Amino acid sequence: MGATARRPAIKRRAAKPAKTANTRSADEQLDSFIGKYTPEIAGQIRVALRQMRAKLPGAIELVYDNYNALAIGFASGERVADVIFSIACYPRWISLFFFPGVDLEDPKKLLKGSGTRCRHIVLRAPAMLDEPGLSALMQQTLDRAGRPIDARAESRIIIKSVFAKRRPRRPENR
What we know:
The chain is an alpha+beta fold and about 170 residues long. It has helices at about 20-25, 25-35, 40-55, 130-145, and strands at about 60-65, 70-75, 85-90, 95-100, 120-125, 155-160.
């Protein structure tokens, strides 16, 4: 009977949080991300956020300042799998994504996309969030959510990722 050799334990270092996480609140960070857009798009983002917060009390906002867009997910928990809706902010427009959106009944053909999980609508104006067709799609999505949003819970913002390198948030002059 031979003795088994044990491997030495690997020491894992915790990832260092970004400096901004230590000095600014999530609200302030989100506001600074939005501030990188043109005043017109930034205003639309802020209005859309207010409307989504009013429609989804208790939602946890998961913020991803990614390479292509600023994405703000409205979720029932802290995992990306808990996201039900997401606002993706691009230099020239804002889109509302539905998770899952593939099997939604969409008689007015409002939804765009061909992926296997989600669909989206380009919000030409935040007021679209109050249109009956869009409200019906949002209600269907909420009804189908695996884990519903607890409206009694306190809403909060969590900055999930910030890419060091991003596309410009303002459109290039052409």
